[in-house]
Design brief:
0% strand, mainly alpha
Length: 313
């Protein structure tokens, strides 16, 4: 009995250790999607009235939990019954990441500034018009954010599944569930904080008092108000760059000869005098990102051509 109990404890400890290690690997691999998820959802809920920001974030977060409640069992079923589909799904997810990143870069060429300005002005007019049903606008934003979340969540689950594909079922279940939970809570907790940054900055900047602390808080509030828009831009840039890195990395790892070519290039860079070790570290992600940009351009070209042909018909 004692030996069985010890064996059980050892098995549980092994599973927990595997879960911890694999969760860290999965979290690193899904960081690119997470950064884009954070930036996209923060943008989705911008434009609503201040008192409705947090309820909208909460509504989207509930939709995200439902998305993952669908995706995690589906991923486990794929791993159990059609494991050969994991790699193709990963490749599709990687290609989509690259496409989405390149579409962002090409946005200014595909959409004129006048279109963006007109859309922004229409939203502002709607928010200012008392006759407009703001709840309907909110519901549209919420549905759009949940659709975006579903796509990005599918990518996160697919990447995580690829990490734990050869692990026991209990490990797969625990890692997928923990990543889904942590990503959802983390993303929407940060989104809630980001969308309220301007309110916090405004509150601090308007504090009264002549003490040094009050003056510091007013300056801090002004600094937050200045930094909030730049934070959003930085998140968007970081998310886009990470999408090329992660998406390109998935594609290169799925194509054997290309993965070996990148490893050989890194080995050659390591032989460079002085800065060889640094170049060896930087070469693989740089080449992954380059492959990601190229793949994104090709997918965007294909999608654009299909859309134009379908539009003509």
């Amino acid at each position: 009995m004692a030996s069985s109990l010890l064996a059980l404890i050892d098995d549980i400890a092994t599973v927990l250790d595997d879960v911890a290690v694999l969760s860290k690997v999965a979290a690193k691999k899904t960081a690119g999607v997470l950064g884009d998820d954070l930036a996209l959802n923060a943008q989705q809920v911008s434009g609503v009235k201040a008192e409705r920001e947090l309820p909208v974030v909460w509504a989207v977060a509930k939709g995200s939990f439902i998305n993952k409640a669908i995706l995690v069992p589906a991923a486990l079923a794929i791993s159990a019954f059609i494991p050969w589909a994991v790699t193709p799904l990963l490749m599709i997810g990687g290609a989509f990441l690259c496409f989405e990143g390149f579409e962002k870069l090409a946005h200014k060429f595909l959409h004129s500034a006048a279109e963006d300005t007109a859309e922004h002005e229409a939203l502002l007019q709607a928010l200012a018009n008392p006759a407009v049903d703001l709840r309907e606008i909110e519901q549209g934003k919420i549905k759009g954010a949940i659709r975006t979340d579903f796509i990005l969540s599918a990518e996160i689950v697919a990447i995580t599944l690829g990490t734990v594909q050869t692990s026991p079922f209990i490990t797969q279940l625990t890692v997928l569930s923990s990543i889904a939970l942590v990503m959802t809570v983390g993303v929407y907790g940060l989104v809630a904080g980001i969308v309220k940054l301007d309110d916090a900055g405004l509150y601090l900047s308007q504090r009264g008092g002549a003490s040094a602390l009050a003056g510091f808080l007013r300056r801090l509030g002004a600094g937050i108000l200045w930094a909030a828009p730049w934070l959003m831009k930085a998140l968007s840039v970081a998310g886009t760059a990470a999408m090329f890195l992660v998406g390109g990395g998935i594609l290169t790892h799925g194509i054997g000869w290309l993965h070996h070519a990148i490893e050989n290039a890194a080995a050659q860079m390591a032989a460079v005098n002085g800065i060889g070790p640094v170049l060896a570290v930087l070469t693989p992600p740089a080449l992954d990102a380059a492959i990601g940009v190229l793949a994104g351009a090709l997918v965007l070209l294909a999608v654009t051509l299909v859309n134009r042909v379908a539009g003509k018909r």
